[in-house]
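for the writeup, i need someone to sanity check this before i put it in the appendix. the sequnce is what the collaborator sent (i think, or maybe the updated version? ugh). structure was predicted straight from it, no edits. if anything looks off just tell me and ill rerun, i have time this weekend
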Amino acid sequence: MSLNFTDTIMAGRLSAVDLAAIAIGGSLFLPFMVFSMGSILAVNPIVAQNLGARRFHLIGKNIRQALWLSQLFALATFFIIRNISFIMIWMDVSTEIIPVADGYLKAISWGMFPLYGYVALRNFNEGLSVTRPPMFIALIGALVNVPANYVLMFGKLGFPQLGAVGTGYASTSVYTIMCLSMIVFTAKFSSYKRFEIFSKFRWPEKEYLKELLRVGLPIGGSATLEVTMFAAVSLLMGTISTVAVAAHQVAINFAALAYMIPFGISIAVTSRVGQSIGKGNVIEARLRGWVGIGICMVIMMLTATIMILFPEAIVRIYTNDPVVTATALNLVFLAAIFQLSDGFQVSGQAALRGMKDTRIPMFFNILAYGVIGLPMCYWLGITLEYGPEGMWVGLIIGLTLAALSHTIRFHLKTRHHV
């Protein structure tokens, strides 16, 4: 999130065209990136269960195969985003933006290979409950991004001024540094020697790739469905008014920032539940799952309380426009309700993921987001003309249905072992 935030702020210092190019380019490749990274997330529960079962020889095999899979996803994403400019033409994007956005996409396309490799190794580490090194490596990436952007965007130290295209190359550089750092750590960490991750070479093997895809594709599909719902609502806001878009962006950005905390905890929930399942201890898995869900709910209640008590202060961070502020205040209040559902759904789904239960939750998300949530957003916001507030009620309905589905399923799958 910090990389995207930095890119947006710095591009805004160049021109409106550069800023728009990054926004449009990012929105085009985000679904492919979310699907791929979500699918690679299968490494976490697979490694966690093998650790719990003391099947150490399978951990090394799985991460090697996950690295192959990450590069296959990267290759597909690489070719897609380098040849996606026709969508901008079809959407009638301004002719001055298209070549800049296309250049940005071509520049960042090279970064998909190290990014997905980094994600695979990060998920491997998280599956083993080793979370601090990935955090520090991500921090290094965030810090390097600022000078890399400055040099390439503005043409410093003898480099040409590349504008938004320079942002793409800077991101690729950052992803490469993060990937190499993760490789070095994983290769040098003494506890990982027994896994023989880099000491043995193996070609892609159907057996392990099949399990990764079986567990991972539904995760990628679920993540993409959620992102698609929010992206569609953002587009629908544009059919109402500019004020609606601006107010929505204020509320959704702050909600997304708050969401990062339970999202991080959800990764831990997947790992810890997976390790318990690997040991064959479903009672412990149930306890760890509910503890994680409870922690997420406490945190989301705190962020909801902040939104209810200090909405004006939150909105002032983003805008001083009185018209935008009036609508944004209503949406921030709805975002407070939104927090509770979001905390439940991300943690409940994570607990199921630790059990490698991903296919049925994906169908729950199709129902909650695609069949009910998004149509409710349109019906309440556009058809009944309740505007942005109506659309946000639709979002709350979709997230609440997903939250109830995932948590009830986790309860049902573990209750017989109590």
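Residues 2-204 form one domain. The chain has a mean pLDDT of 88.
thx in advance!!
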